[in-house]
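Human:
Care to share another protein and its fold?

Assistant:
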Amino acid sequence: MRLSLRAAECLLLAALLLLSAACGSRLPERAFEGRRSAPPPARKAEPVRIGIITSATSPVGGAAFTGPRDGALAYFDALNAGGGIDGRKVEVFTCDDGGSGVGNNDCVHRLLDERKVFALVATTALEYAGAPRVAAAGVPDIGGQPIGPAYDTYPHLYGIYGSDAPRTGGEPGWNGTLYGGTEVYRYFKREHGARTAAVVSYNQAASAAYARLVTKGLRAEGYRVVTEQVDFALPNFRAVAADLKDRGADLVFDAMDTHGNVQLCEAMDAVGVGITAKVTHVQNWSSAVAEDFRNAPRCRNTLWATGSSRNYDDVGHPAVREFREAMREAGKDRELSQWQLEGWAAAMWFTDAAKSCGRALTRACVEAYLNREEPYTARGLLLPVSYERRAEPPASRHTCLSVARWRDGAGWVTQGGDMTRNCFTVPQLPYRP
């Protein structure tokens, strides 16, 4: 499965967020946010209707899941300013599902049955309960963030990272098992000579399960692994930090939410822990790091992020510059994130698929583009994305990696050379979602 360890990270995130507050059983009053109407078309033509579902008012707060939506909206605004798709404007309807399964099902109903959208783009839902209904309706969902196993389970759903799973609508992956690679651990071993890694988790089922997966991958790459666990309700991060210092960890991985990461970093600074890298995931790859970790300057400057898309701070790349300019035009550039860039890429993916159809725009034609043999890269913003339907999971995979490091005053600085050449052949390890 292509980079499915990302899905494991998101499954952990979803489980941890659900611990912090109960999801509402009703859709919020502003759940259906309305539509963004493009300027009148140059010629009379029906607009292409697109839906975007986001857990914008989820228990974790308003900014956690909105990045992909904002990136996609900026792309469609720029697209409409340039004439749309074959002269047809894109009309976007957004829906906030409130982070609940009931709200998600309601959003799916409103967008598919009432708004009659042609496709969904950049879905970012804490609980994608409506996924079976989307699949049954044959509505393409393109470039969604896999916060859960839906994109490795159902046909017509195309997550931003791709998949090799059969996706027949039954169990996720292969008979309920997903697979992830060890490329992140291989990178730090090869590039930085790291040999000892710590894995910090909560004493909570989802956190502990993800920590076991990380530990398994590290050991497969030959690391000595130090495991640390803290109480979810009353965590003693100071004790963890002291032990990390005593045991000489090179790397620190975690199975915690952002709040836990910040507390751990502050404790590490307080006791003087020196490490090569504090490794985080794509959702924390944002300019908010400066504020979130403001009280942990030493640890903050050891933060590294890994992912499957080109660093949004890599302004030397023309596609990144185009994204940044559009975000500026949309007034969304005060806080930038990797998820915004991936939402932009998702909208581009849909648009390129639609344009390939010419005036004969059909869902079948769009999906033929998505399922083609040639991988998709969004003009170099994504590592090659493809969808296959393998009967058996691969034992190993040649996988590439995007890596960046936070530096005060410079933001996220790309590491390890171009992501298309930062590649490894690594084993694929099983896990249950």
Q: What stands out?
A: The longest strand covers residues 423-431.
